[in-house]
Amino acid sequence: MTSAVTIPRHGGTGGRTAVAARARQVVKAYGAGETRVVALDHVDVDISRGRFTAIMGPSGSGKSTLMHCLAGLDTVTSGQIHIDETEITGLKDKKLTQLRRDRIGFIFQAFNLLPTLNALENITLPMDIAGRKPDREWLERVVETVGLAGRLKHRPAQLSGGQQQRVAVARALAARPEIIFGDEPTGNLDSRAGAEVLGFLRRSVDDLGQTIVMVTHDPVAASYADRVLYLADGRIVDEMHQPTADQVLDRMKDFDARGRTS
Amino acid sequence: MTVLKTSMRNFFAHKGRMALSAVAVLLSVAFVCGTLVFTDTMNTTFDKLFAATTSDVTVSAQGASDTGETTSGNGKPPVMPASVLGEVRKAAGVQSAEGTVFSTSVTVVDADKDSLSPSSGAPTIVGNWNGNDARTMKITSGAAPEGPDQVMVDADTADKHHLKLGDEIGVISAVGTHTARISGIATFQVTNPGAAIFYLDTKTAQEALVGQTGVYTNVNVTAAQGVTHEQLKKNVVARIGGDYKVQTAKETADANQQDVKSFLDVMKYAMLGFAGIAFLVGIFLIINTFSMLVAQRTREIGLMRAIGSSRRQVNRSVLAEALLLGVFGSVLGVAAGVGLAIGLMKLMGLMDMHLSTDDLTVAWTTPVVGLLLGVVVTVLAAYLPARRAGRVSPMAALRDASAPADARASRLRGVVGVVLTGAGACGLYLAATADDAKRGALWLGLGVVLTLIGFVVVGPLLAGGVVRVLGAVLLRVFGPVGRMAERNALRNPRRTGATGAALMIGLALVACLSVVGSSMVASATDQLDKTVGTDFIVQSDSGQLITPQAVQAMKAAPGLERVTEYKWTKADFSTPDGKTLKNTAITAADPTYATDLRTETVAGNLADAYRPDSMSVHEQFAEDHDIHLGSTISVAFRDGSTAKLTVRAITSSDVVIDQGAMYTSIDTLATYVPADRMPLDQLVFATAKDGQQDAAYTALKAALHDYPQYTVRDQTDYKQELKDQIGQLLNMIYGLLALAIIVAILGVVNTLALSVVERTREIGLMRAIGLSRRQLRRMIRMESVVIALFGALLGLGLGMGWGATAQKLLALEGLTVLEIPWSTIVVVFVGSAFVGLFAALVPAFRAGRMNVLNAIATE
């Protein structure tokens, strides 16, 4: 079994790819009876290790719910989810918390950082919480990669939105999680800052062998991924490999058109 | 109207966040109303009691005090001959008159010689069963006393001591011990708050209390139809002349009431003072609540301003919320206050003070005062946050983060705080170095108030430093969780400062009083060690004088080297400066008293004052009346003749025990006062032979076995008793301060609870990236502990400063030793940490239960 600190060995492109996370027949439903709303409807998905996966879909398609369930933030109604070989469905809060702490990284759309901690403290926070010493060399490399070396002592309020997201990326990378989940990580950024952050994510997959799953509705953001999954009405309806922004956009338009006519 | 509507909606939307503020208002208002209702009820009870037990006109012997206590030196109540009764009966307008004999200078014991006197400090009264009593009491079992071997007891006392008909009772007065059996039990028809009352028949009462028949202490006169009390009084005085004290029912009741009233007033104002402190602490809580509500609503307020609300409207909408809170809390507080008063009455019942809820008195002013106080204080407290809300710019609606702290405001705050604290410190310094107690007290008061305000103002700035130090010492152990707790506590220094300051106030008072209290004990102990050269002191705790028989018994005890008698009487002095000083106290003691109490002299030798026709005066008196060694003072002793006494010693005025006493010997007193008028001993001192202290102590106790009205104490007992008394007083004050501290704890809970709400997203984020519930709860607990310890540190420091200053000032009054009760201080400090833990319980629990996803999604 892969330990929490294993560095994924495979490069981002080519070669054998193991499965970092998988969902089988996952159902997530809210409410009961007539008011029952199904957010995820028997979803099967494999997240490849060392690859950058984007999840797309219109609002209410269940893309965020899928990510939350995969990341152990939300519980499922039925079905199984595995992170590597560990089944996380049915884990108690304590174990789930540990799993998130040791094996998963997060980048949220906004409010990623604790305002009371400076950039460096925010980056090392998950390891601090776990009581682990950060690997100095690795940390320096991560910090360098995201280009924050000069701003480590700054508080979040003293950083721009793009810089804040880069700190969030660094935090997600620093603990060497098995998977990083991003929930619209560039949603609050202008296109230039967004491109910067996405560039870092791409590079962390290519250079550091990181596995990343990102929810987005931005075709440009999705074009950075190796693979794009399309969700609609709680089901995976399509996927695309090595996409370009235009391809993604076209596919989206298709869905929109279909959605409108159906 | 829209303003009010928005306020109402906001108020009810955030009722959870207002809950603790409402409780704070409720508690303070309840305490005020409870105090008022309780003291009013006590007044009603005593009014009814005195009205019921007082006859239309009462004639008492000259020299009797208004409340009937023994004032003559021989330990017996002042009396008048029975012929007065006959004369009174002949006066015009008298329907009936009855002679009564009673005394409060008595001890009543059961067959085992255990005292039946109330422990509450209420009097023990023994008297004859007369018509007045028959009107106010009902014999509920047995019969009224007849003959020397019968006694009747009141039902409350009988219940408490499980007395039955036929039980033996001993009445001990200056005359001796009279033994009788219970013939009846009588129940009061009005509420008797706690006096123990025993009835004998008239002849027996005369013999047992005065030692002779044919005398009365009082004559109760009932007016004939249509005769006013005033008229009756005039008629009686006209008949019997001015040798007796004649009072109408109203005068007697007023005089009785006076004593009770002054006691109740002291109690009332003391309790209101503590309620005031609770209010003060509550203000911090309310300020914090509204500040947080306003901060959380910044965007909303910005939006309202953007769409055209004026500053005043925003301001008023916040104040309207405060008004609602004030009204809500106060109304509940008034109701709770009545409940509190009833609770207090029940509590007094446990301490032998019987009060009836039938007498429950709620004056119309009570709810008005309660409501007014609660509402005004709440609105005033909300004023600052409301003004801040008014200043929110319309831009706030568009900005995400709340505005950063205003640096200039905090610098101004620092300057103002330091200046106030400095001025306060100067006041304290002046108080400590003052050589006039009155002026010093003024400086002390000023210093206390200014340093308190100064600390409150500068508190938020101190919070930074203190929390960092506490963090370095305590929190680093807990790693990142501790660090985050520290940062959170530092995040809004104004909030941490105000929360800590609330706790500071209560704890400062605790620290100050504990310093003064233990300094009192230490100083008194020091004085006793330095000046007292005797082993045992014998006195009666009920104020009874010591009879010659008892003194004889003591003198007969083996192992004693000497026994010193100590009497006290009054005399009219004619001093060399030509003045006459009426009714001046003079102490007559055995010459050995000069050894028993080593009083310093500024001139002469104190032992010489005990030579025949000699005396001593104290320094101040000598200065005032131009007295030197060898001066002669003419002293007209009460109940005796006039002596010319030579001053042979002048004692220092700077003493604690017997301050201002003037001494002469008992032999000198006996030369001028006939033996049967000699005052009895107030105190008796006994000194054991070397090495026989323990044996002598046992022997003395045995010798006094037949005199249960007297207590013998050795120096250790005496010191212990002193310590206990001061300890008891302190505990009572701590109990009252507990209210303020509870409100302060509510404040800590409030701050944490609101902080948790405010930081929902942050908590969600931390939980998402792997902070466990336990760590989260620990983080909140740590923050709470740090805030509590910050308050404790400031409070204890400030309080010890006050206490030390008070001691320096009171050194003028003999409080010469400063003792800091470190154990108390440490216990309070450590206790504060636990208070912090306790306060964090609910907020931490709720934070732990927060749903991670919802928390992240919160705006």
Automatic annotation (TrEMBL), chain A:
The keyword Repeat does not apply. The keyword GTP-binding does not apply. It comes from the Bacteria. Residues 21-258 form the ABC transporter domain. Keywords: ATP-binding, Nucleotide-binding, Transport. It holds the Pfam family ABC_tran. GO terms for molecular function: ATP binding. PANTHER family: ABC TRANSPORTER RELATED (PTHR24220:SF685), IMPORT ATP-BINDING PROTEIN (PTHR24220). This is ABC transporter ATP-binding protein. It comes from Streptomyces actuosus. The lineage of its organism: Bacteria, Bacillati, Actinomycetota, Actinomycetes, Kitasatosporales.
Automatic annotation (TrEMBL), chain B:
It comes from the Bacteria. Belongs to the ABC-4 integral membrane protein family. Residues 19-237, 499-700 form the MacB-like periplasmic core domain. The chain crosses the membrane at residues 269-295, 318-342, 362-384, 412-432, 444-477, 498-522, 732-757, 782-802, 822-845. It is found in: Cell membrane. Keywords: Cell membrane, Membrane, Transmembrane, Transmembrane helix. It is a multi-pass membrane protein. Residues 274-394, 736-851 form the ABC3 transporter permease C-terminal domain. InterPro entries: ABC3_permease_C, MacB_PCD, Macrolide_Exporter_MacB. Pfam families: FtsX (PF02687), MacB_PCD (PF12704). The lineage of its organism: Bacteria, Bacillati, Actinomycetota, Actinomycetes, Kitasatosporales. This is FtsX-like permease family protein.
